[in-house]
Amino acid sequence: MLRLSTSQAKPGMRLAMSIYHPKQGSAILLRAGAVLQDKVIQRLREFNVTEMWIEYPELGQVADCISEEVNRARAETMQVLSDAFNDVRPEMGATLDYRVFRKAIVDLIDSLLRNPNAALLIEDMNGCAHPPLQHSANVAFVSLLIGLKLDFYLEHQRARLEPARAREVSSLGLGALLHDVGAMDLEPDIIEQYLRTGDEYELNYRRHVIKGFERVRGHVDPTAATVVLHHHQHFDGSGYPARESGAGIHTPAGTDIHVFARIVAAADKFDSLRHPPQPVDAPEGEPMPTVRALRLLGQSPYKEMLDPIIYLGLLAVVPPYPPGTTVELSNGVMGVVTRWNPADPCRPVVREIGDLENPDRFAPGLEFDLSQQPGLIVVKAQGQDVADDNFFPTETTRFDLHGVARALINRAADQPGHNLRQAG
User: Fold this and answer.
1) Cα–Cα distance for residue pair 200/305, rounded to 1 Å
2) Arithmetic mean of pLDDT over the chain
3) Residues 6 or more apart from 419 whose CB is under 8 A from it?
4) Vertex 351 angle, CA 38 and 57, to 5°
5) Is the whole-model pTM more than 0.85?
6) Rounded distance, CA 291 to CA 314, Å?
7) How far apart are CA 208 and CA 199, in angstroms?
8) How far apart are the C-alpha atoms of 178 and 330, rounded to whole Å?
9) N or C: which end of the chain has fewer CB within 10 A?
10) What is the pLDDT of residues 150-197, one digit of tens each?
C-alpha cells in the first residue's frame, strides 16, 4: 500500500482503502478495490480529496498499520460532530446531546483496541466543511492514541484510582472532542479575529475555556470537563486560565495540571501547527509536514509548554514519516516508508518504488534502513521539502519511552509517598 496525493494518482491504480466523503463524514465516496480512471480522479479533486491509499506489491508491513475499521470509526466521529454542531449552530446556548459524543468515542476506542497495529496517526481526515470541527476530531484521535500508549503514565498520575480505571480513556477522548466547544458561545467577530490571526492568547478568545466548561459541567464526567477548562495550561506554568487558591491567583504548572489536560494540550498544539487556523473563506493550504511539527514541538517555546513524557508519547504514536508515505532520500531514491523506530523516528526503513506513471509495472526495489546508513536522510515527503526538519537522538535513550516507563515504576517503588502522583 502507498499513500499518494491526489495529484500523484494515475489511471489504472487500484484503491487499497475506501475514500470517505469529505463533506458527509461517514459516507463512502469510493470503495476499496475501485480502479481509478481519469474522470474518477478529476471528481476526487473536485471533492477536495487530498490523499488516497493505492495497492502496491510486497508492502504487507504497511498494510498491517492500516485498518478500514479504524478509518470508519474516525469518519463516524466526524459525522457525529458535524451533525450535532450543525443542529445547534443557529441557536446560542443550545444544548448538545453529549451521549452521542461519548458513544462515538467509545466506538473509536474499541476499534483501536481491536486493531492495535493501527494505533498510529497514519493519515489526516479528509477535509470537511468546518475545519474547527475537523481540528476537534483530529485532537480527539491523537489524544486517544497518546492515552492508550501511556497507560503506565496514567496509572502513575492517577494513583488514587484502581489501575484499570486509571487507564480508562473515554473521558480523555470526550474532553478532547469537546475541548473548543466554548467557542460556540463567543461572538462571531472574536472567532473571525482568531481565525485570521491564530492568536489563542487574545483576551476575548481566552474566554472560550470558561464558556466551554460552563457548557459541559454536569453533562459529562468531571475529568472530561477538566480537559475543556485546562487544555490551554502549560507544563511551565504559562497558559490560561489562572486558578484561585489559598496562596492567591496562579496558573497551574507541571503535574498540578490534570494528565488528561496535558495530553490534549500536546495534541492541540500538534494539530494547530499542522493545520493553522484560517478564515473560513480562505483557500485551503498545504498542511505542515508532520516531521516539522514534531521538530518544533521539541524546541522552545513549545518544549517548555509540554509534559516531556507526553511529548515522548506523541512521538510514539505519530511517526514523522508514517508507513506508506512516499519519500525521496538524499541519494535521489524515491521510496515508501515501510517501518519506523520510535527511538530514532526520523530514520525509517524505506523501500524503493518504481515508476508511478505505470501502475502495471509496479515493482518494489532495494530496501534502505536509514538507522544503518546515517549518511542518508529523507529530503522530501509527500512532495514537500523536509531536509532541514529531521531530528535525531543525541543519546540512545533520548526517545526511549519504555526506559521512561521503567524509571517511573522504579521511582514509584522507591518513594512510598508517590510525590508526583495526582488524583483521578
Assistant:
1) 14
2) 88
3) none
4) 50
5) yes
6) 12
7) 13
8) 42
9) C
10) 999 999 999 999 999 999 999 999 999 999 999 989 999 999 999 888
CA distances to 16, 170, 403 from 69, in Å: 13, 18, 32
The Cα–Cα gap between 105 and 78 comes to 11
The answer to whether the beta carbons of residues 294 and 318 sit under 8 Å apart is yes
Q: Where are the beta strands (DSSP E) in 205-342?
A: 243-245, 248-250, 326-329, 334-339
CA 58, CA 325: separation in Å to the nearest integer? 15
| Burial bucket for residue 46 (CB in 10 Å: 0-12, 13-18, 19+) | exposed
Dist. CA 17–CA 5, nearest whole Å: 14
Sequential DSSP letters for 107-132: HHHHHHHH-GGG-S--SPPPP-S-HH
476530531: which residue's cell? 137
Cα(258)–Cα(166) distance, rounded to whole angstroms? 12
Domains of the chain listed by start with CATH number: 1-55 (3.90.105.10), 68-317 (1.10.3210.10), 326-392 (no CATH)
Q: Higher pLDDT residue, 362 or 261?
A: 261
Give the confidence band of 103 by pLDDT, cuts at 50, 70, 90: very high
